[in-house]
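stage 2 :: seqdesign
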């Protein structure tokens, strides 16, 4: 029984193809891209519909393989370029940006040594990303387990069989699953002693079922539905870096954590920038009869906007520094990059809430985008690390440094 096609080999001109892809990705007009994505964002939000056309557009521009290494056929972009693209996509449609962020984190990790994947499988997946626009993401959260970042064994089980593994389980919050080609499923083996790790599951494999449960306040178009896996057969080689649970307690990959926190920060900061821009337009054009002039002429409105600029400047300076250090090969510690994500997210939420406070009923009206920006930006709190975990890690690091 052939479960998957044999790994594709890159043609001799793969470096030329990579150069072409890198050129397309470098030359894309990010402002125009934002505008194109923004044209349907409100509709996808209202319908909670997955924006398939957005990813076809990103593929045409070579952006789905942006962080795939050039040696693997991708654009080989660094953190600063990835940050710029995520910000531009988020300015257009934050849900698309969230799925793309996960794509960049997964494909970048696969392009680096020590990824724990069999080489043939790694090449096959990256080939599908570069040539077919395949999307992949990790499925980790479960009903009983919650987020694995807080510990615990997954209930998802992979059973050994003659053909490889049969995977069964229930995953929640599977970001982008409606558009994914590959599911990197966190689970445990049925061995003694038990081992935990990831199992690569093709999304179209028999036994994979999507249950459309995603009806969230924000990021409604991200398609983060439940996934049920029922005796899904995968080859033996699709078990990725299985370890005994205690072996996963080692320090996290600082570079991967740094990338994740910068890209998530850029995503939610971009929503705040959208809110700021809409507020400026409102202040310039709203002229109450009692005032006889636009609200922008009021010192109170100018001061409030200045406070928003203060928050956005802090975000920009932190993200600039973090992206620069990441590209220079100096990733921040997980504790410091976790604080970055927390600070940028807090500031972004504060920006949107200040804009709502200034605009009153106009800001809350569903005919205007500000209430949507508010719902989307609140989702920044959900991503790992949550604020309490980030602050605990930073506090412990400070205590250890002082001892």
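stage 2 :: out
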């Amino acid at each position: 029984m052939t479960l998957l096609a044999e790994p594709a080999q890159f043609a001799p001109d793969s470096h030329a193809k990579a150069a072409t892809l890198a050129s397309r990705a470098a030359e894309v007009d990010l402002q125009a891209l934002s505008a194109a994505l923004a044209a349907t964002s409100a509709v996808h939000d209202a319908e909670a519909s997955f924006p398939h056309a957005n990813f076809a557009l990103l593929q045409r521009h070579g952006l789905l393989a942006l962080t795939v290494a050039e040696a693997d056929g991708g654009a080989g972009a660094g953190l600063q370029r990835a940050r710029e693209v995520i910000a531009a996509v988020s300015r257009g449609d934050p849900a698309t940006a969230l799925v793309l962020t996960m794509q960049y984190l997964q494909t970048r990790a696969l392009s680096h040594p020590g990824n724990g994947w069999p080489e043939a499988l790694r090449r096959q997946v990256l080939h599908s990303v570069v040539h077919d626009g395949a999307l992949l993401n990790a499925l980790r959260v479960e009903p009983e387990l919650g987020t694995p970042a807080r510990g615990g064994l997954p209930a998802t089980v992979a059973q050994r069989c003659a053909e490889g593994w049969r995977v069964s389980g229930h995953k929640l919050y599977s970001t982008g699953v409606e558009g994914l080609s590959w599911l990197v499923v966190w689970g445990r083996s049925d061995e003694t002693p038990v081992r935990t790790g990831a199992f690569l599951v093709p999304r179209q494999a028999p036994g994979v079922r999507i249950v459309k449960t995603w009806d969230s306040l924000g990021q409604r178009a991200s398609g983060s539905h439940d996934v049920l896996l029922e005796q899904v057969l995968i080859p033996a080689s699709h078990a990725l870096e299985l370890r005994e649970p205690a072996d996963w307690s080692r320090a996290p990959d600082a570079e991967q954590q740094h990338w994740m926190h910068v890209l998530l920060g850029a995503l939610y900061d971009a929503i705040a920038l959208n809110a700021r821009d809409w507020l400026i337009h409102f202040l310039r054009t709203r002229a109450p009869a009692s005032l006889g002039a636009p609200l922008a002429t009021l010192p109170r409105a100018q001061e409030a906007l200045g406070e928003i600029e203060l928050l956005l400047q802090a975000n920009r300076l932190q993200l600039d520094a973090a992206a620069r250090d990441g590209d220079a090969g100096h990733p921040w510690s997980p504790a410091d990059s976790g604080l970055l994500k927390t600070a940028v997210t807090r500031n972004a939420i504060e920006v949107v809430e200040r804009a709502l406070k200034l605009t009153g009923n106009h800001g809350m009206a569903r005919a205007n985008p500000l209430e949507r920006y508010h719902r989307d930006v609140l989702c920044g709190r959900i991503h790992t690390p949550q604020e309490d975990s980030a602050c605990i890690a930073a506090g412990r690091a400070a205590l250890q440094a002082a001892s």
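stage 3 :: structure notes
- The two ends are 59 Å apart (CA to CA).
- Residues 254-285 form the longest helix (32 residues).
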